[in-house]
Hints:
Helices cover 28% and strands 20% of the residues. It has 281 residues and is α/β, with parallel strands linked by helices. The protein has an eight-stranded mixed sheet with strand order 1-2-4-3-5-6-7-8, sandwiched between helices. It has helices spanning 81-91, 115-129, 147-155, 174-180, 184-190, 227-240, 258-272, and strands spanning 37-43, 46-53, 61-67, 94-98, 135-145, 162-168, 214-219, 244-249. α3 links the parallel β5 and β6. The model is unreliable at 1-22 (pLDDT under 50). α2 (115-129) crosses α3 (147-155).
Amino acid sequence: MVKWFLPHLFLFHLFSTCNGSPSLSARDFSGSDGSAVQFFYESQEGTVEGFLTRPLRDGRFPLMVLLHGHNWARAGAQQVVPIAEQFSRELCYASLAISLPGYGSTQVPGSDTDGNVIAQVVLDGIAKAAELPWVDGRKIMLYGLSRGASFAAIVAGRIPDLQSVVLHSGAYDLTRLYHNTPNLWLRRLMNPNGKAAPALFNVLADTRNWTAPALILHGGRDDVIPPTQAALLRDRLAALGKPHRFVIFPDADHRLPPTGVKGEVVAFLEKHVGSGCLSDP
């Protein structure tokens, strides 16, 4: 069996990075072999790189949107393309992996930590993918890994047709994390200019607008993003009566065990969304 959800910092599959037209049409996917197709779309006065994957069958399919984590090479959505292809192959989901500002071939002016800018980049990507006749725009899912989980939490309350959100090793109160972490690398990443009072966001307040169930995954020995961050989100959702599942892998660090993650994610998605393989042609 192919391993699911390999540590995202080490997923570096090579794809062509030749910039093409931002346009996207059903023709671009005729005769697809199930591999991700690179495309570009306009958002926030810039150009965003995405990778779309279509299941190898006819029908209209739920859309899984994947947001990647940080890496020093600043690779973007190509990190999570293998995951996107597995969603399409094994659950028949259309999959959209987006390179966030500052990563991959995305070129969007301004800060690459502005939550509102990044949320709009994601929303514009979803709108573009939903134009395709084989994408069911009424069934949207989000999967964020590490840094991507933080931004997935920001956008989760802004997608009307969101069916589920999976948050994998993310941080949700960045102000608290910045002031409490002993990890100097993480502090430099969060505050590269060394400001006395860096502008950091707290997504916990945004959860009031969440309507989709959330799956929170975290490692009990994560020394990059401590599990207290996941617990903060869990407690906030519980206080608001929002549907969620909280899973700690007690012996895992920032890289969660692929088999355990796969079991949790598949069960969660099948419960709340169902398999796209059952879609009518």
